[in-house]
Amino acid sequence: MSERIANEFYKSKVMSADEAAQFVNNGDKVGMSGFTGAGYPKAMPTAIANKAKAAHERGDEFAIDVFTGASTAPDCDGVLAEADAIRYRAPYQSDPVMRKKINGAEMKYQDIHLSHMGLQVEQGFFGDFQVAIIEAVRINEEGNIIPSSAVGNNVEYLNAADKIIIEVNEWQSLDLEGMHDIYSVPKLPNRTPIPINRPGDRIGTPFIPVDQNKVVAVVKTDAPDRNAPFKPIDDTSKKIAGHFLDLLEGEVKAGRLKYDQYIMQSGVGNVPNAVMAGLLDSKFENIQAYTEVIQDGMLDLIDAGKMTVASATSFALSPDYAEKMNAEAKRYRDHIILRPQQISNHPEVVRRTGLIASNGMIEADIYGNVNSTNVSGSRIMNGIGGSGDFTRNAYLSSFISPSIAKDGAISAIVPFASHIDHTEHDAMVIITEHGYADLRGLAPRDRVKKMIAIAHPDYRPLLEEYYERATAEGHYMQTPHDLKTAFDFHINLAEKGSMKGDA
Amino acid sequence: MSERIANEFYKSKVMSADEAAQFVNNGDKVGMSGFTGAGYPKAMPTAIANKAKAAHERGDEFAIDVFTGASTAPDCDGVLAEADAIRYRAPYQSDPVMRKKINGAEMKYQDIHLSHMGLQVEQGFFGDFQVAIIEAVRINEEGNIIPSSAVGNNVEYLNAADKIIIEVNEWQSLDLEGMHDIYSVPKLPNRTPIPINRPGDRIGTPFIPVDQNKVVAVVKTDAPDRNAPFKPIDDTSKKIAGHFLDLLEGEVKAGRLKYDQYIMQSGVGNVPNAVMAGLLDSKFENIQAYTEVIQDGMLDLIDAGKMTVASATSFALSPDYAEKMNAEAKRYRDHIILRPQQISNHPEVVRRTGLIASNGMIEADIYGNVNSTNVSGSRIMNGIGGSGDFTRNAYLSSFISPSIAKDGAISAIVPFASHIDHTEHDAMVIITEHGYADLRGLAPRDRVKKMIAIAHPDYRPLLEEYYERATAEGHYMQTPHDLKTAFDFHINLAEKGSMKGDA
């Protein structure tokens, strides 16, 4: 049986999280492991939060800059935000407490493409990091790290940091060893091609090399990943998933896709789960995933022999499925590869695979510009995540959303997107429960009818009225707009509680 | 001496453009050579326009869909637009007559990333093409094409088309043979890495293979490329160029760039010419370009021994420099490589090179969202071109513009960009004659001061007033906006003739 800390030097560095918090100081840049609620440090965030609270009680300043893979969990982002311990956060978050602090101007947040974060750190745009805090399954004999349920930007942060703190989490299965594939592109000016041709190609090592001289603490933990519970699939999700599967079937019919050639990329959520349930009963075989996160539905597809391989950077599993993974990681590691997010989301490899992308959105406008991040232009939800990395470089890109939210007060199809994360040049297909709008090969005005057709029926007349105003005599006609009323939907929502403008 | 048409079969297909126009019919999808006024067919467009006019006079319909590399010239896009011979145009244009027809709803235009156009044709999104019309320097003994001053999407269109018409242009220097490097990524599901590590790497053939059975006509021409005349560098351009060079020097000072490691990407225009003039007297050496077009300034840098190699897909030279190129192509081809635009603009290679991107813009908002295409949200100027390909994947990306246009009636810095082609996640640095706003590592609110500082002084108070409204009590603070007045600049311009709102 493997020892969790197999290296003598590291054994000498074992201490409590509270003791290790001495190495984290006000103003530090701290790179952490963690991606979508998996693989984040479980003990250090609370210890740092406590240190911050004590400092604030003394009247001292204490706030750090926190960089991760992507979102983490209440016991990481949540406790740090609650303690006002963060000054600047990147590249993604989804914590309710943190979101409130950001939207209330109590902390700052930069929303960065997930494939860019580690790259920009390597390029020196953020200067030195003072600390890296990385969760591991195990430290091997040579002192290298076996990462846990997420790889994220671990490699880049370990390289950038002056001091390294490792959390060894006994909750994580030792059988995850062998699932990871750690590879770094050589630094400028010596970058070379990433030799991945298929999602299943392994090109690196199963561990992350660590500069032992920088390790200041090893903290033992035994705590589960966030593991959001699985929501039952509702009717709207089932319908959206059905339209997505129709889109796939359409590609097959058009001779552009074969039943054994579907490469999946998928955001997390209810609709993707419905899609994967649908795929179980479909004609698609040998499905491969080149994506960010491993979801429940992918394990089902693997178990059913429908999916041969899934490449990602982390897990986003429900409690039951996390348990199954911990019990059967040895079997799953024949089918699953966890990579650094620079590689899982790399434009080079994404484009090469020819994947079909599907990501959630907040709203899209009548020309196919997509808002993934800021409600009514200002209020951050989560962030762009990897949606840009995949959308821009996919063989075929799609965005999915129910046509309405908040009992119909909000329409997902609007005259002018109040924030734009994916432009009309990138989004190919938009899907709601009312169908899919295939915008490929269409000039802007030809997209409008298709977009209005997938809006909720209550909003179609309002969108048609807008388009009439936009195309009135004397207007320019490449992308017709009426800028005076372009944001009326959003202004109505703020003032009257509904985009419809109901009192 | 090489023969222009060295293959017997092709000799038998020589005919006039008017005769060859028989192969182009109403409703056809036609792929043409041509990129930035170089390498476009010189005779066929007029012949097709005449055929269209004759049909229209008879009361018959005649309009085709035209796909090119990028923009062409009055004797291509101009004559076709004038004759109402185009129904749909992609992926880029810059012709005044065509622009008017598009904005007047007399033809349709889809503005597509230049690296996506050929790819989407290969992927079958546009179905079969009926005709490809490609300009060549020469047809060799085996019947393969030596392209002329642009490669563009020639390969993809030749493959997609049922019928091929070749224009052999005697004006183009025979010494261009050997300058081209033709390479195609294998088709899905067999795509492989593009083996270019440095801008100067050659990986393909100097000719384009052609399926002889599809060739229906060869047309001889002797006509110059468009070759827009060189504008003298004005003061504003010099200042903007100076700030760009300061940005480069800043990278050197920060230890992120060495004087012999600058990889240039540059849009076309007055400011880039000023930048290149500035580089002649700078400490930068061994400059390499991985870009779309070869401009006058690059030839100067090559002649001065400052630039070792420039990779692009076409020329955009002034008449004097085009003459020099025609006379000395043999010498220049040691330093210049012309590639298919899928390769010159490929995200994979762009990211690998670590280039520094610099592209023009129409406007940017206070958070760094950039409009490259639609004036006041609706009126197309040219198109996104390759700016997205380079910006998203550059080591460092920048956008340049004078701070005002039309004698101050238009500000390049606005509260909310009226069309967004590059999002806040992509644009790193914005430059006007008032300085550069380095937005790297900054959350949205921290970008505002920097953006207002590079606006024209007349507009700074107006932008500050907007930001005050945007950050008023009760607003969400990630990306503060006041949607009711977000487009006031643009509405003022339309109604009062100035974004300032002057009467």
Automatic annotation (TrEMBL), chains A, B:
The keyword Transferase applies. Belongs to the acetyl-CoA hydrolase/transferase family. The active site is at residue 292. PANTHER family: ACETYL-COA HYDROLASE. Residues 8-219 form the Acetyl-CoA hydrolase/transferase N-terminal domain. CoA binds at residues 267-271, 362, 382, 386, 406. Transmembrane segments: none annotated. This is Acetyl-CoA hydrolase/transferase family protein. Keywords: Hydrolase, Transferase. GO terms for molecular function: acetate CoA-transferase activity; acetyl-CoA hydrolase activity. InterPro entries: AcetylCoA_hyd_C (IPR026888), AcetylCoA_hyd_C_sf (IPR038460), ActCoA_hydro (IPR046433), ActCoA_hydro_N (IPR003702), NagB/RpiA_transferase-like (IPR037171), Succinate_CoA_transferase (IPR017821). GO terms for biological process: acetate metabolic process; acetyl-CoA metabolic process. Residues 333-466 form the Acetyl-CoA hydrolase/transferase C-terminal domain.
